Amino acid sequence: MAMGCPYGTHRVLEPKGSLPQPAWRLDNDPVIYDNEILIDVERLNIDSASFRQISDEAGGDPDRIAARVMAIVAERGKMHNPVTGSGGMLIGTVRAVGPALRTDLRPGDRIATLVSLSLTPLHLEAVRAVRPEADQVEVTGTAILFETGIYARLPDDIPDALALAVLDVCGAPAQTARLVKPGYRVLILGGGGKSGLLCSYAARRAGAAEVICFDYSEESLARARRLGAAHRYIQGDARDALGVLRAVGEKVDLTLSLVNLPGAEMGAILATKPTGTIYFFSMATSFTAAALGAEGVGSQVEMLIGNGYYPGHAELALDLLRESPALREIFTEIYA
Question: Could you say which of 4, 7, 26, 246 is the most buried, measured as most Cβ atoms within 10 Å of its Cβ?
Answer without folding.
Answer: 26
